[in-house]
Amino acid sequence: MADMQDALMISAMGMRAQGERTRVISENIANAGTAALTADSEPYSRKVITFKNELDREDGIRKVKVENITDDRREDFPLKFMPDHPGADAAGYVKMPNVNMLIELNDMREAQRSYEANLGMIEQSRTMMFRTIDMLR
Length: 137
Prior knowledge:
Blueprint: H1 2-30, E1 47-56, E2 61-71, E3 79-81, E4 93-95, H2 101-136
Antiparallel strand pairs: 1-2, 3-4
């Protein structure tokens, strides 16, 4: 029974991590069109989430946790010609966020599938526990 409880705990932590990943991706998508406010400022910077595998010494199981959420500085901010925008430089270009919608949507799909896989494991563990209880009656 303890092994099934461990499986439930591991899956629940996986769901929590993927839920946080979904929140970060949603923030990126929501701010994809947020340009720089002035010529000297920077626009919204894409956020990336990293996970770590941590041993829970009390339970003796490895759980996934969010390690940190940081700005993605691997790509430059694209420039868009908008001479009337208050954030335009002298040449009329505005810095736009480094958010690529295709990447965000693929990351969202992956997070959703991982979440669903963890949910499936919880449902399977729960079904096994109930069947065991029924057999013991």
